[in-house]
Amino acid sequence: MTQRKRIILVTIIVLLVLSAAGILWYQLKSEGGDDSANAEHKLPAIKLILTNGCGFEGVAKEFSDFLADKNVDIVFMGNARPIYDKTLIVNRKGDAVDLQRLQRMTGIERFTEARNENALAEFEIIIGKDYETYTKN
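Request: output the structure for the sequence above.
Response:
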């Protein structure tokens, strides 16, 4: 076999291997192997209390509809006093990782920590007068 034929054969083999690797990568990517939304739904649902703090009737239900496709489990809905201008997340058990997950899912950046190890849920979302900022999407 001549030197030229050997180079052509090696080039063809390299191209075949690269093509196979590219096809495999594309299939894994299209199956959601790297998709954060798919990864989120593989994690346990975040338990939360949803509290209407804006003073407008029916907002907790509207907000729960917004959360319906998120990976959350609403364990209680109620009203808050006083009235809140801004929506916020209350971290009841101090879990920073799940706080970031909840912030990413909802778009709510404002949070506070009020630890209560006996709380019904890890988090509480208090819906403020700015609720439409989050539900319009």
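DSSP finds five helices and five strands in the chain.
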